[in-house]
Amino acid sequence: MSRWQFWIDRGGTFTDIVARTPDGRIVTRKLLSDDPEHYRDAALHGIRGILCVPAGEPLDGAIDSVKMGTTVGTNALLERKGEPVALLINRGFKDCLRIGYQNRPDIFALDIRRPEPLYQTVVEIDARVGADGEVVQALDAGQAERALQELHDQGIRALAIVLMHAWRYPQHELALADIAERIGFKQISLSHQVSPLPKIVGRGDTSVVDAYLSPVLRRYVDQVEQGLGDVRLLFMQSNGGLVRADAFQGKDSILSGPAGGMVGAVAVAERAGLQKIIAFDMGGTSTDVAHYAGELERTFDIEVAGVRIRAPMTAIHTVAAGAVVRSCISAVLYVFRTLLQDDIPLNAGCLKPLDIVIPGGSLLNPHYPAAVVAGNVETSQYIVDALYGALGVLAGSQGTINNFTFGNSRYQYYETICGGDGVVRRIEFREAMSAGILSSHRVKPPFGLKGGAPGALGVNRLVRVDGGVELLPGCAEIQVEPNDVIIIETPGGGGYGRI
Length: 499
Fold this sequence. Notes:
Elements: E1 4-10, E2 14-20, E3 26-32, H1 42-51, E4 63-70, H2 72-78, E5 85-90, H3 96-99, E6 121-125, E7 128-129, E8 135-137, H4 141-153, E9 158-162, H5 171-183, E10 187-190, H6 191-194, H7 200-228, E11 232-236, E12 242-244, H8 256-271, E13 276-282, E14 287-293, E15 298-304, E16 307-314, E17 316-319, H9 323-338, H10 376-390, E18 402-407, E19 412-416, E20 424-428, E21 433-439, E22 459-463, E23 469-472, E24 475-480, E25 485-489
Parallel strand pairs: 1-4, 4-11, 5-6, 5-9, 9-10
Antiparallel strand pairs: 1-2, 2-3, 7-8, 11-12, 13-14, 14-17, 15-16, 18-19, 18-21, 20-25, 21-24, 22-23, 22-25
Helix pairs in contact: 2-7, 4-5, 9-10
């Protein structure tokens, strides 16, 4: 192999990049997925950073392939930021997908809130085919063309065409697609192609999702393709398989990221000689769990954010409570165990005397797609500080986080700098590199208690080779040159009591 290979997970908060150099070494990068002040796309920016290729310079000569998993489609669905879609369906079936299967998940609920449909409007088409595939009513092409032209005039460019028994007799859907293409619609999802199976509700729901997400996905894919140039670009599908960028569809993107994680877990297990594993991915707002016993397990019908989808997917179970909620409960348990002299067994009943309320939508129990608060360790530290302070036991600690990273295409380094009594770390660079600092207590000091003074603030400084000094914020990403120096002063803990 004489060229680079890249594997990328483009998540909602962070983008993780793993690269293999032409000589077989592994290089990694982690970036914010959205940082418009510094770059347009995290994946392309990360690739350029690893290759040390400036913006505007071509990438294709150095890269063999790029393989990506992405939550772009998932986020668009959860945030309801897809393309405006019109649903075309047989006359008399206007409310078919809204009625659905009449499921009642919470049968005793008095305040029933149904998710709004993804389609913006519905057009009923004069055409009908029987269950045997025989035409009952011929397609009224004139009526259909007038209705489609009116939709186009309203600014709608995405269509989901869903007709009864189209899986058996697709000619009416194909004829409508021809008319729509002549008029100028950009996205046309035909139910007999998206989900060529009986049952109009599942087939229709999936077609609407495809029409709703595919344009969003296509814009992102085109952006990446344009940035990469002539590079083989593959995307992970929800079913755990890779597909060419030009064939990546909205309906197959929902579990793109988690499916990639499961495929990776299986590969690691096989190298370790393990035949049966449970893959556990605890994120900020949700936890994904999957099972493997010799083959990837798949499902065909799922529901995401109130939207039914019928497509082959890796069987992944998502639990709503994520790492932040679990960290909060663990921190509470830690505090109260340290305040009691007796040992408390770690079992299901150890927290029974406590009523832990973590309101939904709060910083400690955010609703997707809200960003989660810091990392699990840092979140736990702040909760512990708050509880000790509220109970009048301990002053605020210096915190846990002085995370410092730097590197280039040859070297990468990561360090968590301990502190608590004003520890100072001084790093002088011998080569040009990118560096990042993630630190706390740079604005608000650790609190004092019982008359004690607050702790000292931490300080991050960059001293340039020409003597210039730049004060860095708590979270910063910078470029350093040879002989530049970064100085990190860790904060001190708060005082307890008067002297």
